[in-house]
Each structure stands twice: as C-alpha cells, then as structure tokens.
Amino acid sequence: MEIVEGIGIGFAVVVAAILILFIRRALVTRSGGIIRLGVRVTTVLDGRGWSPGFGRFVGDELRWYRMFSFALRPKRVLSRKELVVERRRLPEGQERLSMPADWVILRCTSHHAPVEIAMARSTVTGFLSWLEAAPPGAASPRVASQDWPAA
C-alpha cells in the first residue's frame, strides 16, 4: 500500500509542477508582444549554451523568460537604449541541431557586454524596427552594420 501512495504522491507533484508552468506562462504572456527567443547563456563550448524562451516587449525593454522555469521575473532584461546589434549570422555546427532551421543569430552588446540572441528570420525585422524606434530628435544608430549577409 505504501508503494501505491508514493506513486500517487509523485504523480500529483509532477502534475502540479506542469500546472504551475502553464499558469506562469499564461501570466507572463497575457498582454501580448511575445516572440520566441533563444539566448546564449554560456560560451564555454562552441555552439552550445543556448536556452529556449520567449521575449516580451515592455516599453523600452525586451524581457526574456526561460521556457522551463518557475520564475515570474525575467531572466534577462535588454534595454533598447543600451542595446546595439553588431552582426547577424546563421546557426553553425552544433547550433543547427539546437534551433529551428529558419532562425538567425544576432550578436549584440548591452552594458558593454556581448549577448547573443536567436530568433526566427521573420521576427528579426520586427525586432530591428523596435530597436531602431526612437522619439523624434533622439535618433542614434542601434545597428552597427547595414551590409549584413543575406540570411
């Protein structure tokens, strides 16, 4: 009887964890402005260290939430005022195995620290438009180079 109770408790814990993940995602994504977005969290091994998630545009910030996390707060916040896109590239080597085929990787700097983000090719245009949008008279380059290779 104790084994059956243990299995039942374990099953209840797993169901509760899955339910919490869905509730968390619903709370974070409730107001729209969401994109699928991968962020490279470590560069120890070439082509590895990518974490899936989603980004939410809130004013001048892009808030990135890990897909498989219980946290209600974003794991990383990128400010439009401090973010500059340095280059754009296609996934290489191991990266091609960890992300969809139509994704593009953008190497950016934020707070003078590099950050790599990956998103669908169709999302890049909207992201760059958001990044370059500024109030009248406050124009400054947010994209380091306009002569990117075709992705």
What report would you give on this structure?
Keywords: Membrane, Transmembrane, Transmembrane helix. Pfam families: DUF2550. InterPro entries: DUF2550. The protein is α+β, with helices and mostly antiparallel strands and 151 residues long. It folds into 2 domains: 30 residues; 102 residues, PH-domain like (Roll), CATH 2.30.29.30. It contains 3 helices and 7 strands, in the order H-E-E-E-E-E-H-E-E-H. Strands 4-3-2-1-7-6-5 form a 7-stranded antiparallel beta sheet, with helices on one face.
Give the helix level as a range of percent: 25-40%
Q: Distance between the terminal alpha carbons, to the nearest Å?
A: 60 Å
Low-confidence stretches: none
User: Which sequence of SSEs, written as H and E, runs from N to C?
Assistant: HEEEEEHEEH
Which radius of gyration do the C-alpha atoms yield? 19 Å
What does the largest sheet look like? Answer: 7 strands, antiparallel
Query: What number of domains?
Result: 2
CATH architecture of the largest domain: Roll
> Treating each run of at least 4 consecutive H or I residues as one helix, how many helices?
3
Give the integer mean of the pLDDT values.
Answer: 80
CATH superfamily of the largest domain: Pleckstrin-homology domain (PH domain)/Phosphotyrosine-binding domain (PTB)
Question: Would you report the number of β strands?
Answer: 7
CATH topology of the largest domain: PH-domain like
Give the structural class: alpha+beta
Approximately how much beta-strand content do the residues carry?
Answer: 25-35%
- Strand arrangement, largest sheet? 4-3-2-1-7-6-5
Transmembrane segments: 6-27
Keywords: Membrane, Transmembrane, Transmembrane helix
InterPro entries: DUF2550
